[in-house]
Specification:
heterodimer, A: mainly alpha, 3-stranded antiparallel sheet, 16 helices, 52% helix, globular, B: alpha+beta, Alpha-Beta Plaits, two-stranded antiparallel sheet, 8 helices, 6 strands, 29% helix
Chain lengths: 307, 286
């Protein structure tokens, strides 16, 4: 596993070709922990959890302690009594179903859409969405238990589903995806009470654990697909600017929720710069954490430098 | 020679790739279509709502409501009496949408209607500014067999608690045929004033309320468009539209004005008249 022996190889070797490799695949980031220490090897993960739980806490302060900083939930909220925020994907379905929302909702949806369009839509998936913790847990357990196989749907399924949910909204005259949406069910469940909604969240966990690796967030979820569309011009991007140091340990591929986005930047496939520009990249920073060679870092989409 | 050799190979490779891509796309589209279809059909099935679940004031008609409500719960948060709650999966109300049950916590009919003001999407219509004009549902005295007033007692609780007392619920005085000497005061709901707040249902003293708030669809019939009430038309026109009708005399009431069927003092209906002896039954008893 010495870096020198692998630096020159242009194509990553097949995964799990030998026993040490296999153990790397079940525990990606073990090298990084040795080199950088546990804390630095989990920096972005911890920051993300802080962001996810922090946002959730803001919503929970009201019902728990009567501190009404944020009212509502991710579908629509009112912060400090002035700032309306609304999920633009919901508004899209509502409009398709034939309703014209009030200006608060339109303004709230516009603010959310503008911020994500500017910074990167899929920041929602990795930094805000509560289901990310569920699917990350499933992915972690799947790696640890060495569960292989299953049936992974095409990654395009989510974009088709995005279109069909809007169509279904138009045809049924209701906000179609909200009948089953695990994202809003989990968030609303935590704030307003679950009922049996935890069953749907458990379903997503088991689906990712047993049937499809990274299946929900990476292949099915139309909410993620919607924010993926808003991710096309994301300002915040991950770069593999020190890709010359890559030793092909495959840890980043093992840990990445959208592993198809890494190769063009890391291995210069069909692009020359080291910037990950694929709209599926959620800028979660897990590749930065698990890399013992510090190949990756977070930057803007205009930084195409390589070092 | 090299071109001749490589081009078909390249072609077949690219056509293989194209075939693979199209297959993947078809699978993705088919899977997504199935899922969306399932969701749509489930939504249609699940949009039925139990009769006891009442929408907040100003709610659009149910079908429009389900298209407009984003299920954020801001109306629930601004309800000062914890009347409203968001449905949970298993409540059989579209998951995440606001409702209340009058029997548990009725609507207090706030003058400023904060729930309507809080709604960002218009699922609760801000055209509603007078809570008295809210039509959340309609109270129906559904069980006349157990209602204490229908038994001839003076419970009156539903009438007393009604925020629109004497308009939405009145007590109608009728003869009590059981005792034949008392009155019954029957709580009677008038749809043109009832807001559906649920106070009557909430306070009914019976273990299971005899008066219940129901969605209008369940509570009300509807006259056909072409129906005309003769007496209303006559009033409006200032006289009968088809000429005065011939009024035939009624036996026993010949000296009365037409329509006056009141019973005169001392009148004994034939059914209660003492049986005169004679005929087949002489009335003789040993």
């Amino acid at each position: 596993m010495s870096s020198a022996s692998h630096t020159q190889s242009a194509v990553p070797p097949a995964a799990a070709e030998s026993t040490p490799r296999a153990s790397v695949m079940t525990r990606p980031g073990a090298d990084a922990v040795k080199v950088k220490g546990w804390l630095r090897a989990h920096k972005w993960l911890l920051l993300r959890r802080l962001s996810q739980l922090g946002i959730l806490t803001l919503f929970m302060l009201g019902p728990w302690f009567g501190l009404w900083i944020v009212k509502g939930n991710l579908s629509s909220s009112l912060t400090l009594g002035v700032l309306p925020l609304t999920d633009p994907y919901l508004l899209l379905q509502s409009v398709a179903a034939g309703q014209v929302p009030y200006k608060e909702a339109l303004l709230g949806g516009g603010i959310v859409a503008a911020v994500y369009l500017l910074l990167g839509g899929r920041l929602f998936c990795s930094w805000v969405c509560p289901v990310n913790m569920v699917t990350d847990a499933a992915a972690w357990l799947r790696r640890r238990l060495g569960i292989k196989g299953g049936k992974v749907p095409s990654e395009y399924t989510r974009y088709w589903l995005l279109g069909f949910t809007v169509l279904a909204s138009a045809l049924t005259g209701s906000i179609a995806w909200e009948w089953v949406n695990p994202v809003s069910m989990l968030h609303r469940g935590l704030i307003f009470g679950f009922g049996l909604s935890w069953g749907i969240v458990l379903g997503v966990f088991l689906y990712d654990l047993l049937i499809a690796s990274r299946g929900w967030c990476g292949h099915v979820c139309p909410v993620g697909a919607f924010y993926g569309v808003l991710n096309s011009a994301a300002l915040i991007r991950v770069t593999a600017d020190r890709r010359s140091r890559c030793d092909d340990c495959m840890d980043c591929f093992a840990v990445c929720p959208e592993p198809q986005v890494i190769r063009p930047a890391l291995k210069a496939v069909a692009q020359d710069h080291p910037l990950i520009l694929d709209k599926d990249c959620t800028s979660c920073g897990r590749c930065i954490d698990v890399c013992g060679k510090d190949v990756f870092r977070l930057t803007t989409r205009f930084d195409r430098s390589e070092s | 020679m090299s071109t001749q050799n490589t081009r078909p190979a390249a072609n077949s490779k690219s056509s293989q790739a194209r075939r693979r891509f199209l297959k993947e796309m078809a699978g993705a589209a088919g899977g997504a279509c199935m899922l969306a279809l399932g969701v749509g059909l489930y939504g249609k099935e699940a949009s039925a709502r139990p009769a006891g679940a009442i929408r907040p004031p100003g709610a659009l008609p149910e079908q429009d409501f389900l298209a407009a409500c984003v299920r954020c719960g801001l109306c629930v948060r601004d309800c000062p009496f914890d009347t409203l709650r968001l449905s949970e999966l298993g409540d059989n109300v579209a998951t995440g949408t606001p409702f209340f049950e009058g029997r548990k916590v009725p609507c207090e009919m706030c003058d400023d209607i904060p729930c309507v003001k809080a709604c960002p999407t218009g699922a609760l219509d801000r055209e509603l500014t007078d809570i008295g004009k809210a039509r959340m549902g309609l109270a129906v005295l559904i069980d006349q067999e157990t209602c204490l007033n229908f038994l001839g007692l003076r419970c009156d609780v539903c009438y007393r608690v009604c925020p629109v007392i004497d308009k939405a619920i009145t007590l109608e005085l009728v003869h009590n045929p059981r005792s034949d000497r008392h009155a019954m005061l029957l709580p009677t709901v008038h749809s043109e004033h009832c807001t559906g707040c649920g106070k009557c249902e909430h306070s009914c003293v019976l273990p299971e309320a005899a008066i219940k708030v129901l969605p209008h669809k369940l509570a009300q019939g509807k006259s056909a468009e072409h129906y005309r009430k003769g007496w209303v038309e006559r009033e409006a026109a200032g006289g009968s539209l088809i000429g005065e009708q011939q009024q035939l005399p009624m036996r026993g009431l010949e000296d009365r004005k037409y329509g006056d069927t009141r019973v005169a003092p001392g009148y004994v209906p034939p059914s209660e008249a003492p049986v005169k002896p004679g005929g087949i039954d002489s009335g003789w008893k040993p």
